[in-house]
Protein backbone atom coordinates (compact mmCIF):
# COMPACT_ATOMS: atom_id res chain seq x y z
CA UNK A 1 0.00 0.00 0.00
CA UNK A 2 1.27 3.48 -0.79
CA UNK A 3 2.37 5.13 2.44
CA UNK A 4 1.50 8.77 1.75
CA UNK A 5 -1.79 10.38 2.70
CA UNK A 6 -3.48 13.32 1.06
CA UNK A 7 -2.37 16.75 2.38
CA UNK A 8 -3.67 17.37 5.88
CA UNK A 9 -5.10 13.85 6.19
CA UNK A 10 -4.27 11.29 8.84
CA UNK A 11 -1.73 8.69 7.68
CA UNK A 12 -2.39 4.98 8.21
CA UNK A 13 -0.51 3.28 11.04
CA UNK A 14 2.64 1.31 10.26
CA UNK A 15 0.98 -1.96 11.20
CA UNK A 16 -0.49 -4.72 9.07
CA UNK A 17 -4.24 -4.34 8.63
CA UNK A 18 -6.67 -6.77 10.23
CA UNK A 19 -8.50 -6.77 6.88
CA UNK A 20 -7.69 -5.40 3.44
CA UNK A 21 -10.42 -5.67 0.83
CA UNK A 22 -11.62 -4.17 -2.46
CA UNK A 23 -15.34 -3.34 -2.73
CA UNK A 24 -17.19 -4.40 -5.87
CA UNK A 25 -20.19 -2.96 -7.81
CA UNK A 26 -22.53 -5.26 -5.85
CA UNK A 27 -21.54 -3.29 -2.71
CA UNK A 28 -22.81 0.07 -4.05
CA UNK A 29 -25.75 2.07 -2.72
CA UNK A 30 -28.22 3.89 -5.05
CA UNK A 31 -26.02 7.02 -4.98
CA UNK A 32 -23.07 5.13 -6.49
CA UNK A 33 -20.90 5.04 -3.35
CA UNK A 34 -20.10 1.89 -1.40
CA UNK A 35 -23.02 1.07 0.92
CA UNK A 36 -22.36 2.19 4.50
CA UNK A 37 -23.75 -1.09 5.78
CA UNK A 38 -21.05 -2.99 3.85
CA UNK A 39 -18.38 -0.85 5.51
CA UNK A 40 -19.98 -1.40 8.92
CA UNK A 41 -20.00 -5.16 8.37
CA UNK A 42 -16.32 -5.16 7.41
CA UNK A 43 -15.47 -3.00 10.46
CA UNK A 44 -17.27 -5.55 12.65
CA UNK A 45 -15.28 -8.42 11.12
CA UNK A 46 -12.00 -6.47 11.40
CA UNK A 47 -12.60 -5.59 15.05
CA UNK A 48 -13.49 -9.17 15.91
CA UNK A 49 -10.12 -10.52 14.74
CA UNK A 50 -7.90 -9.04 17.49
CA UNK A 51 -10.70 -9.76 19.98
CA UNK A 52 -10.73 -13.45 18.96
CA UNK A 53 -6.94 -13.63 19.20
CA UNK A 54 -6.99 -12.06 22.65
CA UNK A 55 -9.86 -14.20 23.95
CA UNK A 56 -8.63 -17.35 22.15
CA UNK A 57 -12.27 -18.21 21.53
CA UNK A 58 -15.34 -17.06 19.63
CA UNK A 59 -16.63 -13.57 20.35
CA UNK A 60 -19.92 -11.77 19.74
CA UNK A 61 -20.45 -8.06 19.14
CA UNK A 62 -22.32 -6.43 22.03
CA UNK A 63 -21.90 -2.71 21.33
CA UNK A 64 -20.94 -0.22 18.65
CA UNK A 65 -19.60 2.50 20.95
CA UNK A 66 -18.92 4.98 18.15
CA UNK A 67 -18.89 5.02 14.37
CA UNK A 68 -17.93 7.91 12.09
CA UNK A 69 -17.92 7.99 8.29
CA UNK A 70 -15.34 10.59 7.22
CA UNK A 71 -15.35 10.12 3.43
CA UNK A 72 -17.26 7.97 0.93
CA UNK A 73 -15.68 4.78 -0.44
CA UNK A 74 -15.70 3.89 -4.14
CA UNK A 75 -15.50 0.69 -6.14
CA UNK A 76 -11.84 -0.10 -6.82
CA UNK A 77 -10.54 1.49 -3.61
CA UNK A 78 -8.18 -0.75 -1.64
CA UNK A 79 -9.69 -0.49 1.83
CA UNK A 80 -7.51 -1.30 4.85
CA UNK A 81 -9.01 -1.90 8.30
CA UNK A 82 -6.52 -1.41 11.15
CA UNK A 83 -7.77 -2.76 14.49
CA UNK A 84 -6.24 -2.47 17.96
CA UNK A 85 -7.46 -3.65 21.36
CA UNK A 86 -8.29 -0.57 23.47
CA UNK A 87 -9.53 -2.25 26.68
CA UNK A 88 -9.98 -5.74 28.13
CA UNK A 89 -12.51 -6.59 30.85
CA UNK A 90 -13.43 -9.82 32.59
CA UNK A 91 -15.19 -11.18 29.50
CA UNK A 92 -15.25 -8.19 27.13
CA UNK A 93 -12.78 -6.67 24.68
CA UNK A 94 -13.09 -3.17 23.21
CA UNK A 95 -11.42 -2.56 19.85
CA UNK A 96 -10.65 0.61 17.90
CA UNK A 97 -10.86 0.31 14.11
CA UNK A 98 -9.43 2.86 11.68
CA UNK A 99 -10.20 2.50 7.98
CA UNK A 100 -8.16 3.92 5.09
CA UNK A 101 -8.74 3.84 1.32
CA UNK A 102 -6.02 3.78 -1.33
CA UNK A 103 -7.36 5.18 -4.60
CA UNK A 104 -6.54 6.80 -7.96
CA UNK A 105 -3.86 4.51 -9.51
CA UNK A 106 -2.59 7.26 -11.85
CA UNK A 107 -1.63 9.38 -8.83
CA UNK A 108 -2.15 7.18 -5.73
CA UNK A 109 -3.39 8.70 -2.49
CA UNK A 110 -4.51 7.30 0.88
CA UNK A 111 -7.40 8.85 2.80
CA UNK A 112 -9.03 7.98 6.11
CA UNK A 113 -12.65 7.03 5.50
CA UNK A 114 -14.00 5.59 8.76
CA UNK A 115 -13.20 5.19 12.44
CA UNK A 116 -15.11 3.18 15.03
CA UNK A 117 -14.99 1.57 18.46
CA UNK A 118 -16.74 -1.74 19.15
CA UNK A 119 -17.05 -4.05 22.14
CA UNK A 120 -17.08 -7.85 21.94
CA UNK A 121 -17.75 -10.54 24.54
CA UNK A 122 -15.94 -13.89 24.64
CA UNK A 123 -18.21 -16.96 24.47
CA UNK A 124 -17.70 -20.70 24.79
CA UNK A 125 -18.80 -23.49 22.45
CA UNK A 126 -22.35 -23.36 23.87
CA UNK A 127 -22.63 -19.60 23.31
CA UNK A 128 -22.35 -18.71 27.00
CA UNK A 129 -20.22 -15.79 28.21
CA UNK A 130 -16.76 -16.91 29.34
CA UNK A 131 -13.92 -15.34 31.32
CA UNK A 132 -10.93 -14.20 29.26
CA UNK A 133 -7.79 -15.98 30.41
CA UNK A 134 -4.33 -14.57 31.01
CA UNK A 135 -2.72 -16.08 27.89
CA UNK A 136 -1.03 -13.54 25.66
CA UNK A 137 -2.78 -13.02 22.32
CA UNK A 138 -1.15 -14.69 19.33
CA UNK A 139 -0.99 -13.40 15.76
CA UNK A 140 1.12 -15.66 13.59
CA UNK A 141 2.43 -13.94 10.48
CA UNK A 142 2.50 -15.81 7.15
CA UNK A 143 6.08 -16.67 6.13
CA UNK A 144 6.11 -14.64 2.91
CA UNK A 145 8.40 -11.78 1.85
CA UNK A 146 5.73 -10.57 -0.60
CA UNK A 147 3.46 -7.61 0.15
CA UNK A 148 0.19 -8.26 1.97
CA UNK A 149 -2.31 -6.92 -0.56
CA UNK A 150 -5.56 -8.47 0.69
CA UNK A 151 -6.74 -9.98 3.97
CA UNK A 152 -10.26 -11.38 4.08
CA UNK A 153 -12.47 -13.77 6.04
CA UNK A 154 -14.69 -16.14 4.00
CA UNK A 155 -18.33 -16.43 5.05
CA UNK A 156 -20.92 -19.27 4.83
CA UNK A 157 -22.19 -17.88 1.50
CA UNK A 158 -18.75 -18.72 0.04
CA UNK A 159 -19.02 -22.48 0.74
CA UNK A 160 -19.25 -25.25 -1.84
CA UNK A 161 -21.57 -28.29 -1.44
CA UNK A 162 -18.81 -30.18 0.40
CA UNK A 163 -18.66 -27.55 3.14
CA UNK A 164 -15.29 -26.06 2.18
CA UNK A 165 -14.81 -22.57 0.77
CA UNK A 166 -15.58 -22.64 -2.97
CA UNK A 167 -12.43 -22.77 -5.09
CA UNK A 168 -13.92 -20.23 -7.50
CA UNK A 169 -14.24 -17.72 -4.65
CA UNK A 170 -10.55 -18.19 -3.81
CA UNK A 171 -9.62 -17.81 -7.49
CA UNK A 172 -11.58 -14.55 -7.66
CA UNK A 173 -9.77 -13.20 -4.58
CA UNK A 174 -6.38 -14.25 -6.02
CA UNK A 175 -7.23 -12.39 -9.24
CA UNK A 176 -8.04 -9.23 -7.25
CA UNK A 177 -4.89 -9.61 -5.15
CA UNK A 178 -2.66 -9.94 -8.20
CA UNK A 179 -4.30 -6.95 -9.84
CA UNK A 180 -3.38 -4.66 -6.93
CA UNK A 181 0.40 -4.47 -7.61
CA UNK A 182 -0.24 -4.69 -11.37
CA UNK A 183 -2.51 -1.64 -11.21
CA UNK A 184 0.02 0.30 -9.15
CA UNK A 185 2.83 -0.53 -11.59
CA UNK A 186 0.75 0.27 -14.68
CA UNK A 187 -0.79 3.37 -13.04
CA UNK A 188 -3.99 2.49 -14.84
CA UNK A 189 -6.67 -0.16 -15.00
CA UNK A 190 -5.53 -3.67 -15.86
CA UNK A 191 -7.27 -6.70 -17.35
CA UNK A 192 -6.43 -10.33 -16.55
CA UNK A 193 -5.17 -12.10 -19.68
CA UNK A 194 -3.69 -15.36 -18.33
CA UNK A 195 -3.63 -17.62 -15.31
CA UNK A 196 -0.15 -19.03 -15.81
CA UNK A 197 -0.38 -21.43 -12.85
CA UNK A 198 -2.77 -22.10 -9.97
CA UNK A 199 -2.35 -24.65 -7.19
CA UNK A 200 -4.70 -25.42 -4.30
CA UNK A 201 -2.59 -26.89 -1.48
CA UNK A 202 -5.21 -27.17 1.30
CA UNK A 203 -8.94 -26.53 1.67
CA UNK A 204 -10.15 -23.29 3.25
CA UNK A 205 -12.84 -23.08 5.95
CA UNK A 206 -15.27 -20.41 7.08
CA UNK A 207 -13.60 -18.29 9.76
CA UNK A 208 -10.08 -18.68 8.40
CA UNK A 209 -8.26 -15.36 8.08
CA UNK A 210 -6.85 -15.45 4.55
CA UNK A 211 -3.78 -13.35 3.70
CA UNK A 212 -2.99 -12.78 0.02
CA UNK A 213 0.64 -11.82 -0.63
CA UNK A 214 1.65 -10.62 -4.10
CA UNK A 215 4.85 -9.70 -5.92
CA UNK A 216 5.53 -8.55 -9.48
CA UNK A 217 7.88 -10.97 -11.24
CA UNK A 218 7.90 -9.54 -14.77
CA UNK A 219 6.97 -6.31 -16.56
CA UNK A 220 6.63 -6.22 -20.34
CA UNK A 221 5.66 -3.45 -22.75
CA UNK A 222 1.98 -3.66 -21.77
CA UNK A 223 1.86 -6.62 -19.35
CA UNK A 224 2.60 -7.33 -15.70
CA UNK A 225 3.03 -10.85 -14.29
CA UNK A 226 2.40 -11.36 -10.57
CA UNK A 227 3.03 -14.22 -8.13
CA UNK A 228 0.40 -14.63 -5.41
CA UNK A 229 0.66 -16.74 -2.23
CA UNK A 230 -2.31 -17.34 0.07
CA UNK A 231 -2.07 -18.29 3.76
CA UNK A 232 -4.82 -19.20 6.23
CA UNK A 233 -4.69 -18.37 9.93
CA UNK A 234 -7.04 -20.71 11.80
CA UNK A 235 -7.92 -22.32 15.15
CA UNK A 236 -8.04 -19.37 17.61
CA UNK A 237 -7.39 -21.55 20.68
CA UNK A 238 -4.11 -22.80 19.20
CA UNK A 239 -3.44 -20.55 16.19
CA UNK A 240 -1.65 -21.95 13.17
CA UNK A 241 -0.83 -20.54 9.72
CA UNK A 242 -0.85 -22.80 6.65
CA UNK A 243 -0.25 -22.10 2.97
CA UNK A 244 -3.41 -22.89 1.01
CA UNK A 245 -2.87 -21.55 -2.53
CA UNK A 246 -0.21 -20.24 -4.87
CA UNK A 247 -0.64 -18.80 -8.34
CA UNK A 248 0.89 -16.75 -11.14
CA UNK A 249 -1.24 -14.40 -13.25
CA UNK A 250 -0.60 -11.96 -16.10
CA UNK A 251 -2.39 -8.64 -16.54
CA UNK A 252 -2.42 -6.11 -19.36
CA UNK A 253 -2.63 -2.36 -18.82
CA UNK A 254 -5.67 -0.74 -20.48
CA UNK A 255 -6.80 2.84 -21.06
CA UNK A 256 -10.26 4.35 -20.54
CA UNK A 257 -11.39 2.77 -23.83
CA UNK A 258 -10.15 -0.68 -22.71
CA UNK A 259 -7.39 -0.67 -25.32
CA UNK A 260 -3.89 -1.89 -24.47
CA UNK A 261 -1.53 0.82 -23.33
CA UNK A 262 2.24 0.93 -22.83
CA UNK A 263 3.51 0.78 -19.26
CA UNK A 264 5.83 3.66 -18.41
CA UNK A 265 9.06 3.47 -16.40
CA UNK A 266 8.82 2.64 -12.70
Q: Tell me the series of helices and strands, N- to C-terminal.
A: EHEEEEEHEEEE
Radius of gyration: 19 Å
CATH class of the largest domain: Alpha Beta
User: Which sheet architecture does the biggest sheet show?
Assistant: 5 strands, antiparallel
Corresponding CATH architecture of the largest domain = Roll
Would you mind describing this structure in some detail?
With 266 residues, this protein is an alpha+beta fold. The chain has two domains: 19-123, Hotdog Thioesterase (Thiol Ester Dehydrase, Chain A), CATH 3.10.129.10; 147-254, Hotdog Thioesterase (Thiol Ester Dehydrase, Chain A), CATH 3.10.129. Helix content is 15%, strand content 41%. The chain has helices at residues 36-55, 167-186, and strands at residues 19-21, 58-69, 78-88, 92-103, 109-123, 147-152, 189-200, 209-219, 223-234, 240-254. The strands form two sheets. It has a five-stranded antiparallel beta sheet with strand order 1-3-4-5-2, covered by helices on one side. A five-stranded antiparallel beta sheet has the order 6-8-9-10-7, covered by helices on one side. β8 and β9 form a beta hairpin. It starts with 18 loop residues before the first strand and ends in a 12-residue tail after the last strand. The model has no long low-confidence stretch (mean pLDDT 93).
Relevant terms:
266 residues, alpha+beta, Thiol Ester Dehydrase, Chain A, 2 domains, five-stranded antiparallel β-sheet, 2 helices, 10 strands
Q: Could you outline the blueprint of secondary structure elements for this entry?
A:
Layout: E1 19-21, H1 36-55, E2 58-69, E3 78-88, E4 92-103, E5 109-123, E6 147-152, H2 167-186, E7 189-200, E8 209-219, E9 223-234, E10 240-254
Antiparallel strand pairs: 1-3, 2-5, 3-4, 4-5, 6-8, 7-10, 8-9, 9-10
